[in-house]
Design brief:
This protein has 2 domains: 216 residues, Rossmann fold (3-Layer(aba) Sandwich), CATH 3.40.50.300; 57 residues, no CATH class. 34% of the residues lie in helices and 20% in strands. It contains 8 helices and 10 strands. The strands form 2 sheets. It has a 6-stranded mixed β-sheet with strand order 6-7-8-3-9-10, sandwiched between helices. The protein has a 4-stranded antiparallel β-sheet with strand order 2-1-4-5, with helices on one face. Helix 2 crosses helix 3, helix 2 packs parallel to helix 4 and helix 3 packs across helix 4. The longest helix has 24 residues. It starts with 7 loop residues before the first strand and ends with a helix. It binds adenosine-5'-triphosphate. The site of adenosine-5'-triphosphate (ATP) has 14 residues, from strand 2 and helix 1. It comes from Micromonospora qiuiae. This is ABC transporter ATP-binding protein.
């Protein structure tokens, strides 16, 4: 099952889109069964790095390996959960969506049915197995995506802001559920998010990135707080403030580079009370400069 095998290794990775250097000299090792969150300002390169692990983009320098295998393209052993639930096949029921991967891999009917039942139960969708994606709520579609990925028994599950489009309440439920599922399966998960609180709730390690272009790994924060986690406990709140300062500095750097900043450090934005002060980033943004939605979320 997931988590028993291949760790991921990102070695000296540079990623370009034409002349644009999106990521430069990224290095990251992810252990089997680890839950790693990539956190950083909007547009810094989190998805690009995740896509390199998925095999959707290939580095111009360096390499990504999964176990002993160099990543040269997408593979079922690296399952991806996208923010958009359009990733589900709309003409298939939930059950058929989840069964699709095992069917393609030639898994026999009985074994396939057992796997589908297991993962549907795990994500809490057994009762909706015969519905089509259009008949599901946003949260249910994300559950279905996760079940579909898990049914392929991947070495690593890659999640690109999977809860980014959900309302706050559903998002919270999904975070708690994912924490439980991760503990149940021992899956290796790499999870991209803007949301500092989400990273603290979920990660074993939180990896921050510098603002692009030429984004890189900035800091790695071990996060070994007991699970399930509570953002209001003092250790979580302290980590939250540290991360907000880290990311705020990158946002401020971007604004300065764009000539939009008045010289103050973005890390000072919002309420220093931490998670309890959520929603305190002013509508006008940091130092009066309007922020991208993602950066506003990151600084809450
Ligand atoms: N296919 C592409 N072609 C050209 N540029 C790209 C491509 N994909 C990403 N980029 C650029 O690479 C940089 C990093 O983008 P990426 O989507 O990885 O950022 P991100 O941190 O995931 O952002 P967000 O959190 O807002 O989704 C951005 O400047 C983006 O415009």
């Amino acid at each position: 099952m997931t988590g028993s095998g291949s760790p991921v290794s990102v070695r000296d990775v540079d990623i370009r889109f034409g002349d644009f250097v999106a990521v430069r000299q990224a290095n990251l090792d992810i252990g089997a069964g680890e839950f790693v969150c990539l956190l950083g300002p909007s547009g810094c390169g989190k998805s690009t790095l995740l896509n390199a692990i998925a095999g959707f983009v290939i580095p111009v320098n360096g390499e990504v390996t999964c176990g002993d295998t160099r990543v040269t393209g997408p593979d079922v052993s690296r399952g991806v959960v996208f923010q958009s639930a359009e990733a589900l096949f709309p003409w298939l029921t939930v059950r058929q969506n989840v069964a699709f991967g095992p069917r393609m891999r030639g898994v026999g009917k009985a074994q396939r049915a057992a796997a589908v039942d297991r993962y549907l139960a795990m994500v809490g969708l057994s009762h909706s197995a015969d519905r089509f994606p259009a008949q599901l709520s946003g949260g249910m579609r994300q559950r279905a995506q996760l079940a579909r990925v898990l049914a392929n028994e991947p070495s690593v599950v890659l999640m690109d802001e999977p809860f980014g489009a959900l309302d706050a309440q559903t998002r919270l439920v999904m975070q708690v559920e994912l924490d439980r599922i991760w503990r149940e399966t021992g899956a290796t998960i790499v999870f991209v998010t803007h949301d500092i609180g989400e990273a603290i709730l979920l990660a074993d390690r939180i990896v921050t990135m510098t603002a692009g272009p030429s984004a890189g790994i900035k800091n790695v924060y071990p996060c070994d707080l007991p699970r399930p986690r509570d953002l209001t406990d003092p250790a979580s709140a302290a980590l939250f403030r540290q991360l907000r300062e880290d990311i705020g500095a990158e946002v401020a750097r971007t604004l300065r580079a764009q000539g939009l900043d008045d010289g103050h450090d973005g890390g000072a934005a919002g309420d220093p009370a931490g998670p309890a002060g959520a929603g305190t980033v002013p509508p006008s943004g940091v130092n009066g400069v309007r922020l991208a939605d993602g950066d506003r979320r990151a600084l809450r």
